[in-house]
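Recall that a protein's primary structure is simply its ordered list of amino acids. Everything else, from secondary elements to tertiary packing, is in principle encoded there. The following example makes that idea concrete.
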Amino acid sequence: MTHFIDPRLREATQPFWPDAGIIGSHVGGERVVGDGATVSVNDPATGQLLFSYPDAGADVAAKAAAAAAVGQVTWGRFTAAGRGRVMQAVARAILASAEPLAQLESLSAGKPIRDTRGEVAKVAEMFEYYAGWADKFHGDVIPVPSSHLNYTRREPMGVVLQITPWNAPIFTAGWQIAPAISMGNAVLLKPSELTPLTSLALAVIAEAAGLPKGVVNVLAGYGHTTGQAALAQPAVKKVVFVGSVPTGRLIGEAAARRLLPSVLELGGKSANIVFADADLERAAIGAQAAIFGGAGQSCVAGSRLLVQSAVYDRFVDLVAQGAAKIKCGDPLSADTEIGPINNARQHDHVLSLIREGAAEGAEIVIGSDGTAQQQGYYVKPTVLKNVTNAMAIARKEVFGPVVAAIRFDTEEEAIAIANDSEFGLAGAVWTSDVARAHRVAAQVKAGTFWINSYKTINVASPFGGYNNSGHGRSSGVEALYEYTQVKSVWVETAAEPAIAFGYAPGLRD
């Protein structure tokens, strides 16, 4: 069993737990340290060891599931309005700890502080939004053609397992936890083993604000050990996963074997379509935000840039000129616009796809040539042109600041290229033709689509994918359907109900 925490990180965790040298899971309001293999996490900005801790493992997963089952019963006794009031208090507590949370997220996940400050504010907004829904999402009365009163109840699933990724740890934690607990569920949250710290801090904050112990439990450990053990727990009644397609398939299969419903939010290779009649300067800024924001580590990143031939060269140059000005650097610096790739494995993946793209004939206009820098996991904003949709760089999810520019001539060709992908998470179109904008939006197969914009997301709007980008929705009112099950109740109201079958003295002889 090994523990290590960088002095900077020790200081960043002080607001949330004093004995910051010990990292463990949050189970029933207590910290429980595992006894599994050591999880070592490097600083994305330097490549040096940042912290280490023991994998939680099966025993801790079982304790967390038991704590969640008890916590869900307690939480279920709250009125819907009472749940909403607690969640409002949690939102206020998150805002009160906004800067320490942002600092911890930036340091531990390698995300620019300018991004993490915004993401923490959005997490508070998530709790506020679903606090408002707590007493407003309910069943219906059905006008059945009989003497019965028939009504439905929306009841919690029970204990929900939520598995979140490393690219936006606290954002995805709030994105999943808030709708689940607003409906009376308890949560087993298994963040990436690389980024557990802000999820653990969020659970501590929520309980200090009044959330009963056991309603949110956070497991710190590997997916193939701790995550797998959590999925096997009988108390778990639903599984929500955000991550890659291969892992999503494995989790979906494991859930299906237990007959558990699942929500899978998987990868993307989104098409950002630019027509010649668009405002090209605004579209170029939008294209940069679509792919370079967050160092491209976003499932909705606009990684395929489809540009009409008449303006292709000019537009690609505009995007490349902007990319050259984007500031890469220390995540904790206020001037940094792009931080490093989160981890060495992903860093190697991004660089290998750049090299593969160049080998297949794509031209690197600006950015990385696919070789590693001397320190940290940085990749410069990279623009590749003369890409065809058959190339690996256009088909595989890069998950880094790399955009592949593809030519098209007609509207029909643009739509065909956009839909020629295993994914279907997001997309966008830039044009001054209103009719065309809506035609394209209707025909591109994606769960989220922007017109003359990119990457605007709000908790009130449904989010999820088509095709291999997954199924189910993780926000908006649609998420509440995912976190409830419906019960139909029939009440006989007739004074002399008709008897269709059976015998009883005095009623039917």
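DSSP finds 16 helices and 21 strands in the chain. The longest helix spans residues 113-133.
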